[in-house]
Specification:
alpha+beta, WH-like_DNA-bd_sf
Length: 292
């Protein structure tokens, strides 16, 4: 999906349904679409803020304006990439609200970054396990553990309206990048199966438009990843290849500036296939595993 024409509605509070308002952060890029979308949940006294976004003064000011003096009961992050969680700490200082949600996580890696680096300063007051809830006046948010994009990724289900806040796990504009060592393709696929089994009415991702046909989109995403897996095995059966040699063949119709991100997801697929005994690595080339 190409970026929509500017101007984008940065800083404006958009009431997307009675219990949910959305504020767009000014951090649009090829990897964040038009920017991070922060969601305010609640219609009266007592709000939850989901994915407060980057620590940007203009975004914090926009959130303060949208909160409009109402009590904030929880600041909740889906994961700790720096386009999602850094505003949690300053917003907590402004509002007095606790930071509740995903676990802290910081991974050091020498690999070129194709997603946002981790937020070293994230320090939650409470970490939610799968199925735990946070409640406020007229709303209930349930944590749905969805590791894969990151090991600490959570989605949040708004029980009153059957909406799911999907962070970076499911987005309509792009597939989620899976970057080893923390990103794990097997976990990601299992998490896709998990949300596919749910009956959510709508998804609100952290980037891009709302998903109004959730199961249809997730079914397509699962099929796409399985297709990539089969493609890798087929290409390696033809001849051993490095990741650098696989990517131009697999993504020949994709803009080259996206190839580093594609390479990370190919690597995640290869590690998963290796664990399953389907491929093997020798020096810098991947081979089909010998048949038993």
């Amino acid at each position: 999906m190409s970026l929509p024409p500017q101007p984008w509605p940065t800083g404006l509070a958009d009431q997307v349904e009675p219990l949910v308002a959305r504020v767009l952060a000014p951090n649009g890029s090829p990897f964040t679409f038009t920017g991070t979308q922060t969601y305010l949940v609640g219609s009266g006294e007592g709000l939850a803020v989901i994915d407060p976004g980057p620590d940007d003064p203009s975004h914090l000011a926009a959130l303060e304006a949208a909160i409009a003096g109402r009590p904030v009961m929880a600041i909740m992050c889906t994961h700790t990439h720096r386009d999602h969680s850094p505003a949690a700490a300053p917003l907590a200082r402004i509002t007095g609200a606790p930071i509740i949600g995903c676990a802290p996580l910081h991974i050091e890696s020498d690999a070129p970054r194709v997603d946002a680096p981790f937020d070293k300063g994230y320090s939650p007051d409470r970490v939610l396990a799968d199925g735990e809830q946070v409640c406020g006046p007229g709303w209930t948010l349930t944590a749905v553990a969805t590791p894969g994009h990151t090991s600490n990724h959570l989605c949040y289900a708004l029980e009153e309206s059957s909406a799911l806040f999907t962070g970076d796990h499911v987005m309509a504009w792009s597939t989620s990048v899976v970057v080893p060592p923390d990103g794990d393709m097997a976990d990601y696929m299992a998490s896709l199966d998990k949300v596919y089994a749910r009956d959510d009415r709508i998804y609100y991702p952290a980037h891009g438009p709302a998903v109004t046909k959730p199961r249809q989109l997730v079914r397509g995403m699962i099929g796409h990843r399985l297709m990539r897996e089969r493609q890798i095995v087929k290409l390696l059966t033809e001849e051993p290849r490095s990741i650098a040699a696989l990517v131009p063949v697999m993504y020949k119709g994709v803009a080259e500036y996206l190839w580093p991100a594609a390479a990370q997801s190919v690597h995640a697929h290869l590690l998963d296939l290796e664990r399953r005994g389907l491929v093997r690595l020798d020096t810098d080339k991947w081979y089909p595993a010998p048949k038993r």
